[in-house]
Amino acid sequence: MPVIECHLIEGYDDAAKSRLCAALTDAVRIVVPAPAESVTVLLHEVSASAYMRGGTHRTPAPALPDPAQTVRAFLDAMEARDLESARNMLGAGFTMTFPGTDPMTSLDALVAWAAPRYRFVTKSYTAFECLPSQDEHAIVYCRGTLSGEWPDGTAFDGIRFIDRFEVMQGLLTRQDVWNDIAETRGTS
Amino acid sequence: MPVIECHLIEGYDDAAKSRLCAALTDAVRIVVPAPAESVTVLLHEVSASAYMRGGTHRTPAPALPDPAQTVRAFLDAMEARDLESARNMLGAGFTMTFPGTDPMTSLDALVAWAAPRYRFVTKSYTAFECLPSQDEHAIVYCRGTLSGEWPDGTAFDGIRFIDRFEVMQGLLTRQDVWNDIAETRGTS
Amino acid sequence: MPVIECHLIEGYDDAAKSRLCAALTDAVRIVVPAPAESVTVLLHEVSASAYMRGGTHRTPAPALPDPAQTVRAFLDAMEARDLESARNMLGAGFTMTFPGTDPMTSLDALVAWAAPRYRFVTKSYTAFECLPSQDEHAIVYCRGTLSGEWPDGTAFDGIRFIDRFEVMQGLLTRQDVWNDIAETRGTS
Amino acid sequence: MPVIECHLIEGYDDAAKSRLCAALTDAVRIVVPAPAESVTVLLHEVSASAYMRGGTHRTPAPALPDPAQTVRAFLDAMEARDLESARNMLGAGFTMTFPGTDPMTSLDALVAWAAPRYRFVTKSYTAFECLPSQDEHAIVYCRGTLSGEWPDGTAFDGIRFIDRFEVMQGLLTRQDVWNDIAETRGTS
Amino acid sequence: MPVIECHLIEGYDDAAKSRLCAALTDAVRIVVPAPAESVTVLLHEVSASAYMRGGTHRTPAPALPDPAQTVRAFLDAMEARDLESARNMLGAGFTMTFPGTDPMTSLDALVAWAAPRYRFVTKSYTAFECLPSQDEHAIVYCRGTLSGEWPDGTAFDGIRFIDRFEVMQGLLTRQDVWNDIAETRGTS
Amino acid sequence: MPVIECHLIEGYDDAAKSRLCAALTDAVRIVVPAPAESVTVLLHEVSASAYMRGGTHRTPAPALPDPAQTVRAFLDAMEARDLESARNMLGAGFTMTFPGTDPMTSLDALVAWAAPRYRFVTKSYTAFECLPSQDEHAIVYCRGTLSGEWPDGTAFDGIRFIDRFEVMQGLLTRQDVWNDIAETRGTS
Q1: Which among F44, F46, F55 has the least Cβ separation from residue D36?
Q2: pLDDT band, very low/low/confident/very high, at B171 (cuts 50, 70, 90)
């Protein structure tokens, strides 16, 4: 049933508007059990000269990039061992925690940690799930299964994983990883 | 900058309205990098006789319970070994997957599986994170650390975990669990 | 697709609001080929102290009675030969035109005209259709079939008729009648 | 007093917007006895990317043609005996009922029926009145007087008529005709 | 033509809403040369639980008292020589400047200054004019004519004056006075 | 807290929209003690074909010029003794009242009146304050200090003044002047 009107300074492209409409639709549905087709979203765009807050006109900030896409690009770069690209996606204060590790602050530390654990690993994604935080970062969860080769060259696959990322202004500031590698290794 | 107006049939209590305001605020901020204090949300409540869709008046559905609270209540019941209460929170088709398990469909199966693994386990929560899905269920992530006793009576703590739940109409329909128990056990 | 918001001074009862919602829904659909379920109407009621036009607060006029109901009550009174009730539903300047008559201004004239034509007549209604005019009156069409007895006592039925009424402030100001009585009589 | 805001996907031309504003104005005035100059209508047009229902962007349907104009064009074609043009304005399931006839489904049937009744007939229009239905068709009433020649070549005029049309997507699906021809013929 | 909608947390009384409607009407008319009767103002009141800014519900501040009434009450108290009441209407940092004086900070200073100038003075008011400032205070202008007696007991009247006040939260923080007393005295 | 939406026919330039936003912001703040940064103004511009009042589309009137700028231009012209330009800024029925004068209707009368009073005078402006009236004119107050030379060639400065203007459609219709010239002259 709900109708949501969102007033914005004009300047957002269609993709950003589409993401915004979808996010507002979903936001309502977590509280109001409305069937999807009864949730209507309208964006009203006003020119900068037609918006004033506190007696001052405002310039609209550019839309934030889709945090799920940022995470996906990072994971792709890591899988392709393109560390330089991956490094460019890291924000200030980035930390990454893997099963059994303390927080690491560099990709090199991660590579060193992983070396004795597997020759390589490939991710199959079940889903990316994305949500805002009350702070400035967005949160992205991605989960699926890992396949790859153990150090001795034997293959593994179907190992469940989940990653949690914090993304700020298009840069990763935190990664937390859980998976069943130890469980699997222990039973194999 | 954005101003969000949401038109609702009246009848939601203050807690539901508060959750709705917060969800809409957060939804905008995942796309528009507005500072928090510039996001305004207004709920306009109309009487049922003042709302018509498709030529028909509608009755507002009651607000959905907060899915994070549902999950928390379930986890508390499990920790207190109050299986009956926990069972009442499960919806049709409920499955739970733990590290190394296939999907289990009953709490008894879980208890049987856990018995040889630890005497008991207690969860400390870092955060509950809640998001809508495109389907009818909401998603709740909760993460933190586990403490407890191994079968031999020695204590453990600080083991990272993350749970992912799907919640539909106040009932759990899916739980997926990841943690570092195998990793820890392997290294201990 | 359209969403219609109508701002009103509060004070209309549910029936009036319902009629207003329906009238707005229909109005949109005569221009925009939207499926019914995608037309949403919201009435926003404000208190008299929250509405000002031209620097002056206004008192809302009471809702107009449903003109179709007014017409129906008049036709029922006529059929029951309750001329006094029917007369009380006539507004200033009322005229009625029947097949082959000049405009008549009194119910007595009508009764005198009808006397040699049929003993009595009963209306079965197919539909009442109601629309606003650009002037102050509403227009009501009602159509269906007539049954009754000719002056010689033989019965007739199934004769098509249509009436057009103008209704102002709950009173009839004009009635125009067409029917197939002459056609039927001619062929019988 | 009422202020009506109607939110639309952009793309309607000025004529359609004008008809929509007028239809909304009239719709209000059938319930609320507001003087014309106090009814304000605002159309808010949003781009397709700024509108979402049920999580999906929508494409606006083109405005429906003015049903009164459709009817007028049909009547003009009939009067000019341009049957082919008139036939192109008929929709699936078209029926027409004239005084004393069963429903006819083709213009040829009408022509055959009319042949012995009058040499030709010309319509003078008093008014076209147009209203939405609760179904998908619009309803158009047109009334006025007929003039023409009887089969014997004598002239007639000033005979009252009323036609009722149903119009769907710019095509006629039903015509019902009442007039005083039999009444007049009978008295002449 | 303009329609102004103002969204407020509920809790303002009718007098405050009336003043707000009038202030918004006037504000538009200083820019848009709309005839009065075409300016419509609607206040939409939402409950505190239906309003959120920056993720926080807000408590509405009570309406400010009408600054013109505050000024009038002060001037009445002064004229009645009720210095105690007048003093209670003064805010922190109050200053008053009269023709030829430096800013004075107390009513006693004023009384001392006025003593040799006139026995008493009475104000007739032509108008109070009130406007907001960009700061927190409101501005009130009042003008009219003075009558009274010179120290020698001769009467005067019709002397033009204008006072400018700054009013903050119902208290006077500044008064500036101009009048033609010196002009008149000089010519008498 | 308030959010103000103002619906306008499109066609106003950025400067007019900016003045309108500011005027609406200020109008709210004279009643509601909201901190500036919590007052949001949105102008919604609709095309002329998307606005109807009383069943009629309307043409937007051009924005009124800023009355403070009109007054400033007049005062500048007077100071520069450019009487012709100043005269062109006067509207029908213009009157001006100075300390001790009756209302004068021409600039020549003013010049004649001032000649024996000072050789020239220059204004330093503290502030221009502008407000709407309930009538068609706007009101502009300007105040500051005067400097110049007395007829005997001695200089003066720091003499307080205040002018009140009425401005209609960009032309001055009334000026009232108060100052401390007589007070100063009397004490010098």
Answers
A1: F55
A2: very high
Q: What pLDDT score was predicted for residue A186?
A: 60
Which pair of structure tokens corresponds to residue F20?
Answer: 């309108």
Q: How many angstroms separate the CA of residue B146 from the nearest CA in chain A?
A: 13
ipTM of the predicted structure? 0.92
What is the C-alpha separation between F19 and C155, in angstroms, rounded?
78
Strands (E), chain E: 3-9, 40-46, 51-53, 56-57, 90-97, 120-132, 138-149, 155-168, 171-179
- Are residues D54 and A21, on separate chains, in Cβ contact within 8 Å? no
* Residues D12, D103: Cα–Cα separation, whole Å: 37
* Best mutation target, D49, D56, D58, to test chain A (most A CBs within 10 A): D49
Q: Please, what is the average pLDDT of chain E?
A: 93
Query: Does the pLDDT of residue D35 top 80, yes or no?
Result: no
CA F110 and chain centroid, separation: 19
Q: Chain-centre distance of CA B64, in angstroms? A: 12
Does B144 contact chain A (CB < 8 Å)?
no
Q: Report pLDDT for E187.
A: 56
State the CB neighbour count (10 A cutoff) for residue C59: 10
The percent of residues in chain E predicted with pLDDT above 70, rounded, is 98
B187 falls in which pLDDT band (50, 70, 90)? low
Residues E87-125: b if buried by 16+ CB within 10 A, e if exposed: eebbeeebbbbbbbeeebeebeebeeeeeebeeebebee
Q: Is D22 on the interface with F (CB under 8 A)?
A: yes
Neighboring chain A residues of D47 at a CB cutoff of 8 Å: 14, 17, 45
Q: What is the pTM of this model?
A: 0.91
The confidence score (pLDDT) of residue A103 equals 96
Q: Is the Cα dihedral E29, E34, E38, E42 positive or negative?
A: negative
Q: Under an 8 A CB cutoff, do C37 and B49 touch?
A: no
Q: What are phi and psi for residue F133, nearest 5 degrees? A: -110, 175
